[in-house]
Amino acid sequence: MKDRYDFSKGKRGRVLPPQPEPEGKTRITIRLDQELVDRFFEMAEQSGGANGYQTLINAALREYLEGKAPRFEDTLRRIHSRGTEASCSLIQLTVSVCRENGIACNAVFRNFIYP
What we know:
- It is a single chain.
- The chain is an all-alpha fold and 115 residues long.
- It is built from five helices and no strands.
- The longest helix has 18 residues.
């Protein structure tokens, strides 16, 4: 190993040229909650490497935007139809979640009662 190295002709930046982006994909920077990232990492590991975490996030977003993800009101209706005890617990839970997240409970229940 040398005592000194000459970097006077060195260049800043990438050593290799950037790889081209895959067709139809866009590179972005996004900040997500650590819990979400951890969950998608776990799901990717459970798939045995068949799907990467970014592919799973992309699929979840696409499913939501295409309306394939279950709506909150539909989930409320499904649980409500199972019986009164479950319904009471569900209503209490929904109200507390709404209050914690600053969501107007009346809007949630309006959509539940009047689909």
